[in-house]
Write a structure and sequence with these properties.
Elements: H1 7-13, H2 39-47, H3 61-74, E1 78-82, H4 85-96, E2 102-106, H5 111-120, E3 127-131, H6 136-142, E4 147-153, H7 165-175, E5 178-182, H8 187-190, E6 200-204, E7 218-222, H9 224-227, H10 232-239, H11 245-255, H12 258-277, E8 282-286, H13 296-302, E9 309-314, H14 317-327, E10 332-333, E11 343-345, H15 357-363, E12 369-373, H16 379-390
Parallel strand pairs: 2-3, 2-4, 4-5, 5-6, 10-11
Antiparallel strand pairs: 1-7, 6-7, 8-9, 9-12, 11-12
């Protein structure tokens, strides 16, 4: 089914396995364990000699359906599902790296990712060097003999910086390392990092894959020898930060409308970005679909559209930014993104509040910066709600 259908069809049909009841919608298997026909079969299943479900911590038919569908969309050999986007990043690193290994990461990362690298992985002897998301030479210069992983999110959160995936893939290959790309902002509808040379793709399925802010989920995708045999699946099986069957089922249903939603998010976001550029109290707008974006040309090569995230800076710093946020009446004040509903957040005091002021300064996250994940409401209503706050600046 993977090779013969377009993405829209794969989002509806890939990963479908009907039970003896021949259900049309994907079945939800709410069970902790699975029964074996004999002691011999139980032993064969546990050892991996015989394929089949064992225990829902690491094998469940509903979760498998989600993994197969996302793998089809990303063009990946295999996928393992996790409990959240952060558990996907943790599992990737803990499954592949050891004490004494080195990571090169973009300076422009989600705040929780920075905290994971700085405060957790560091305690286990894994060192991280941060470089500019857009300076390939800086990535090359940061390579050490013990470099094992290059980690980047593109577009970045929240400034939508675009990293050259193909160029970074070459840096990683030359260093004998792996390149992992967080594809959460784009989803496979807009960008497929594996096609550009990345070794691994990371997802927070909580975002656009679900698309309606209902459940948490994550995923790691890549070649079977790396994901299943290289240590990631083994870590997940043992440590257990895996996706629940119920959450997998919810995300499966969300993925059915992924293409339609991503196209609509992108149309609305581009209009909001163009409109914000004309507002007198907005000093800068960051959106990959704008000609003013520093990596506009690269974004056009890597992505099908600019996506649904628009970040902008207002005059007056934190006080003005908070006043704008508090003036909205329809847009949701929440840090989540990828929802059908528009969401607005002040990164410096929420998503990136746990990193130091110095780290925020280096990442360009100012006190006047706001991030809107543009939803599917009428564009006139989104503008009108933002305008309430802009008039008070």
């Amino acid at each position: 089914m993977v090779d013969n259908f377009e993405l829209e069809t794969l989002a509806l049909r890939a990963g479908t396995h009907r039970s003896q009841f021949n259900e049309h919608s994907e079945a939800l298997y709410l069970t902790s364990s699975f029964v074996f026909d004999s002691a011999a079969q139980a032993a064969a299943r546990f050892s991996g000699i015989e394929p089949g479900n064992v225990y829902s911590r690491f094998t469940n038919p509903t979760v498998t359906a989600f993994e197969e569908r996302l793998a089809a969309l990303e063009g990946a050999e295999t996928c393992v599902a996790t409990a959240s986007g952060m558990s996907a990043i943790l599992s990737c690193v803990m499954g592949l790296l050891s004490a004494g290994d080195h990571i090169i990461a973009s300076r422009s990362l989600f705040g929780a990712t920075v905290s994971l690298f700085n405060n957790v992985l560091k305690r286990f002897g894994i060192e991280t060097t941060y470089v500019s998301a857009t300076d390939v030479i800086a990535w090359q210069a940061a390579v050490k003999t013990n470099t094992k992983l290059l980690f980047v999110e593109t577009p970045s959160n929240p400034l939508t910086e675009i990293s050259d995936i193909a160029a970074l893939a070459l840096v990683a290959k030359k260093a004998g390392a792996w390149l992992a790309v967080d594809n959460c902002f784009c989803s496979p509808v807009l960008q497929r990092p594996l096609d550009l040379g990345a070794d691994l793709v990371i997802h927070s399925a909580t975002k656009y894959l679900d698309g309606q802010g209902r459940v948490l989920g994550g995923a790691i995708l890549g070649k079977r020898e790396l994901v299943m045999e290289g240590g990631i699946f083994s870590f997940l099986r043992t440590a257990g930060p895996t996706l629940s069957a119920f959450n997998a089922w919810i995300i499966l249903k969300g993925m059915e409308t992924l293409k339609i939603r991503m196209d609509a998010h992108s149309v609305n976001a581009l209009e909001i970005a163009n409109w914000l550029e004309k507002q007198p109290d907005v000093t800068r707008v960051y959106y990959p679909g704008l000609l003013s974006h520093p990596q506009y040309s690269l974004a056009k090569q890597q992505q099908k559209t600019g996506g649904g995230i628009v970040t902008f800076e207002v005059k007056g710093g934190k006080e003005a930014a908070w006043r704008l946020v508090d003036s909205t009446r329809m847009i949701s004040i929440t840090a989540n993104l990828g929802d059908t509903k528009s969401t607005l957040t002040h990164p410096a005091s929420t998503t990136h509040s746990r990193i130091s002021q110095e780290e925020r300064d280096l990442a360009g996250i100012t006190d006047g910066l706001l991030r809107i994940a543009v939803g599917l409401e009428a564009i006139t209503d989104i503008k009108a709600d933002l305008e309430k706050g802009l008039k008070k600046l």
